[in-house]
Amino acid sequence: ALQGAPTLTPPAGNGVATQLALVARVISARSQLGATRQVFLTSLGGFDTHSNQQAAHTALLTQLADAIGWFQSTMAQLGTANNVTLFTASDFGRALLSNGDGCDHGWGAHHFVVGGAVKGAQVYGSFPDLTANAPTDAGNGRLIPTTSVEQYAATMASWMGVGASDLRLILPNLPNFATETLGFMN
């Protein structure tokens, strides 16, 4: 199926964009594959820094931004932008307090949801109180997230056609949240 897929040229030296180029090629071949729904995973490592974070995170986030921008542009060119949603996820955030040359692991992290069906230009969830020992500070500047990745997943699963009763089977912790879906998809 990929033999008939378009040749795509992602930004040079951008590993995430290279991964997304293959994803885009497979998406372009969806009819030949008989696929109505597809889920792909790509990755970008290197965020587990404890020092030199400003330079390291700037480089990583620039790579991520360039890759996402390129992918979204490619989806528009392929006519699939309204049918494809890109979502970032992370297994940890960063603590607010310095360890002297950076910061340690934390819980809260920002995520991006991009695509033509996304109700964009909005922030979902609550912005945390960044003062030391605030109610959402679990200690050492580790913020307790106010919005769960499960809520994001439930929102996207609903968009993909998963029924409300099945969401709880797929995401068993979902009932622990007052709002199960966040409403960021059209």
Q: Report the count of strand segments.
A: 4
Largest sheet: 2 strands, antiparallel
Q: Which residues sit in consecutive blocks of at least 5 with pLDDT less than 50?
A: none
Task: Please list the strands of the largest sheet in the order they lie side by side.
Answer: 1-4
Keywords:
single chain, 186 residues, mainly alpha, two-stranded antiparallel sheet, 33% helix, flat
Walk me through the structure:
With 186 residues, the chain is mainly alpha-helical. Helix content is 33%, strand content 8%. The chain is built from five helices and four strands; from the N terminus they run αααββββαα. A two-stranded antiparallel ribbon has the order 1-4. It has a two-stranded antiparallel sheet with strand order 2-3.
Helix-strand layout with pairing:
Elements: H1 15-28, H2 30-33, H3 53-77, E1 86-87, E2 93-98, E3 103-106, E4 113-114, H4 149-159, H5 164-170
Antiparallel strand pairs: 1-4, 2-3
Offer a quick outline of the entry:
It is built from 5 helices and 4 strands. The protein is mostly helical and 186 residues long.
